Amino acid sequence: MIKNYFKIAFRNFGRHKLFTMINIVGLSIGISAALVIYVIVNYDFTFDKNHRDSDKIYRVVTEYSFSGNVGYNGGVTGPLAGAVKAEVTGVKDVVPFFTNGGMNVFIANNTNVPTRFKDHDNIVLADGRYFTLLDYNWLAGSAKTALNEPYQVVLTSDQAKIYFPKLSYSQMLGKTVTYDTIKTTVTGIIQTPQENTDFNFHDFISYSTGLANPALKDNLQLTEWGSTTSASVLFVKLADNASAANVEKQLNVLLKKHNPPKKEDAGNTQVFHLQPLSDLHFNKEYNNFDGGHTASKTTLYGLLVIAAFLLLLGCINFVNLTTAQASQRAKEIGIRKTMGSTRRQLITQFLSETFLVTIFAVIIALVAAPSILKLFADFTPKGITVDYLHHGNILLFMLALIVIVSILSGFYPALVLSGYKPVDVFKNQAHSGTNKTRNAFLRKSLTTVQFIIAQFFIMATLLVSKQIYYALHKDLGFKKDAIINITIPYKNMNPGTKQVFKNKLAAMPQIELMSIGGAPPSSGNTNSTEMTYKDGKKEIKTDVQQKYGDENYIKVYKIKLLAGRNIHQSDSGKAFIINKTYAKILGFKNPADAVGKILDFDNHKNEIVGVTADFYQKSLHSAIQPLVILIPTNKWGTRTFHIALKPQTTNGGEWKKAINDMGKTWKELYPDDDFDYSFYDKNIEKFYESEQHTSTLLTWATGLSIFISCLGLLGLAMYTTNLRTKEIGVRKVLGASVAQIVTLLSTELILLILLAFVLVTPLAWYAMNKWMESFADRTSISWWIFVASGAGMLLAALFTLSFQTVKAAVANPVNSLRSE
């Protein structure tokens, strides 16, 4: 019986090759998209799911409110861990650790010069409690003793093979690894985690080393309740019957006890929260560790919606074309029923045909998925791969997809086809249900849904592209082109070396102007403090951002000075310039009125000597904040060189030569550090990487949805013209023109596209407004976005229809009427 079903299915495919191909292509595109998106989404949703009692593991994080501005920090104060262990109930394990980055690692070899690994990240100070919190497989050493003493280190297997490539894991025990100047002994090797994890540390130095080493001990700040760093991390595992809310309450009572609020900090708050382990990978406010990869659940759910839409489009094509072809199989169904076939057997027959089409589509999707994933390699995490052999869940997903798509696409057509009455069939009345009945209504509804989805994607793509263009081309209040940023390594900040570097750069003819300071005008870094203004009647406290630079800082970036003068080196610690927004907050409508006023800052009185025009300190997602530009008072504010290049000549090449010369000079002065530079306009573009990735995905989704929709439209047009072949022949004999026949055949489908446009426009407008709310400064949602989307879809549809309608309109009527 089953063999017979498939034999009939293949015969039917052979008779309707083009329609079968359209169905397979439409479904394969939808299934390919679903598979690739599943791989991406599944990757992010499987982080740190393998640990025991993961639902009881929390990270303690800190939330600040400072002059009305809220800040978030994934770290805690140094002494909190000890206090929690001693005073908080309901906590089973207290696990502090301290992250380190940028350490040079030295491994002794057979020469006098040890092997050096520069600027290694993912190094952490931890103890045995870390390995009770998370699950690791030990290859050598013991979790109970490996980190009990100072100057011990545990390595992951991958890192151990980098340091000691020729030794076995047991032979590595007792070897020396030096971190900068800290000598440690290898006491354990753990298996590098194979599962997706945010805990990507590969060198675990014993926590007691931080207590024994003076330099590290200063970083730990174990007695500083008022200081928080994201490097100081604290995890807790709750007891079985403990409440997260109750533990969180105890943490904040503990904070008030050891760090009571000061009178001068009135209005400012510090609060501890418990962040579930499951939230670690998705929370961009607190991030994870050392700027590791975090995912957006909104984006992931959006991807799932796109996959569902594309899959739905392929299924709609199948339903439309199969029900449209129903009349062509009417006699087959009538004969089968007359010969004794039950409706259940007929439904099984048609579902088996759908199953075969889906199988073919899935095979195409499995072959295409790795190549499709490579197209998005620039903005997908490196760990994402399509590996069918080692990821059985992908095959399970595809099996589930086969079943779902087969039922979704085939069940309704099977009901329609199996429902024909033999009496109607043999009276040649099978065509009665093809145009005006509920079957035709369903086809029209599904076609409308197709074009609603396609036009929504077009509108969304146009708006996202418009906002990105607006952000990249808007006047941000400073110059961003032809400026290079170079940052001095923090471990080699010798003033004499830096001065030599500055002098050599100044001698290069390609450099127009140079400034030394901190972060550029717009950056991801934020440095702020509270400043107070007293005018004799009132006191205004404001959280103010700080930018450090010398007198050339505003000249390099061409920041406009509205009033007063520029800062000079002699202003260090005594005066600064502010932006227009801060002047308004202080109550000065005229910027010139702010000049000469005094602000209390860092226990000093500082004079406002100038007011600049506003400029964006971050991306357009954030509003302009009150700001001061001041002469740096320490070496940390003078690490960055801001270099404005002269315009290139017609032949070009000057910038390339300048960069090569800078690199040579750098290697002479900083031989152990790589020469890293960046063009500032490229850094600005990175602010909108997420939006650019969204635009790319939407562009692909738009193209695929239009292609699938037009593919289905072509199939319907072919069916309609075949059904009305004799009518077209009669009309031509009676004098109808080609244009009239094309209009006749196209009108109904064009009206469906226009209906889709009317329905989708308010929905798209609402969705666009919600997306744009994340931008403090945004472009307008122009009327032309909707008009262009509708017109573009209409043109694509007309172009698709023209292949079949024109062909039918110019056909010789003699051929169509010969059988009469």
TrEMBL record:
Residues 305-419, 703-809 form the ABC3 transporter permease C-terminal domain. One of its GO terms (molecular function) is transmembrane transporter activity. Residues 20-252, 452-648 form the MacB-like periplasmic core domain. Keywords: Cell membrane, Membrane, Transmembrane, Transmembrane helix. It is found in: Cell membrane. InterPro entries: ABC3_permease_C, MacB_PCD, Macrolide_Exporter_MacB. The chain crosses the membrane at residues 21-41, 300-321, 346-373, 393-420, 441-464, 697-721, 733-761, 781-801. It is a multi-pass membrane protein. One of its GO terms (cellular component) is plasma membrane. Pfam families: FtsX (PF02687), MacB_PCD (PF12704). The keyword Membrane applies. This is FtsX-like permease family protein. It comes from Mucilaginibacter ginsenosidivorax. The lineage of its organism: Bacteria, Pseudomonadati, Bacteroidota, Sphingobacteriia, Sphingobacteriales.
